[in-house]
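Z., the sequence and structure:
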Amino acid sequence: MTQFEYVIPFVGIIYGLCATDLLTSIYRLLEQRQKVKFHFLPLVWSAICFLIIINGWWAFFEINDRVLINSAGKLLILCCMPLLTFLFCAAALPGRVPDSGCDMWQYYLANRKLFFSFLVIYMMIIPLVLHYFTPEREMTEYVISQSVGAACLASLIYFKNIWLHTGVAILFLITMSNSLFQQTIVL
């Protein structure tokens, strides 16, 4: 068996759990819609989470071509990305709707510190992991863009302004949508 045949099922299971958690949460919200006061921002961020899942899973095809994983420690370091993805996906939407109902805006405000903290850590760990596995790769622009993105996300932890949250969410939605079509593998 090749390295890819060992690694991708494990990574695929983690990303599959991310998607399952997100989709299950959306289903529960729709199922209990009479008790839910919907707000667009948590739904936009959950869409961004789904795009990150697809993008991250796809990135492992390129990682497979460039990286030799010859120890469990290297696998652990590489798995930081899907593990963090699971954590921010799980924090994006409520896992269940309480009997008293759910106000999505209030949930978003109450949970934003946890959600954005995991997302900031994820954004900052990607360049570190990539540099660890491919030190010869020039990543200055990538590190700067990730740092700017992480700073924008970190600001959402401290500020409750709906316009700021909406602007950053739209920016990330556009950026993630665009990145899906820019990340290609040459076979």
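The mean pLDDT is 87. Residues 3-181 form a domain with the I/LWEQ domain fold (CATH 1.20.1410).

Let me know what you think.
H.
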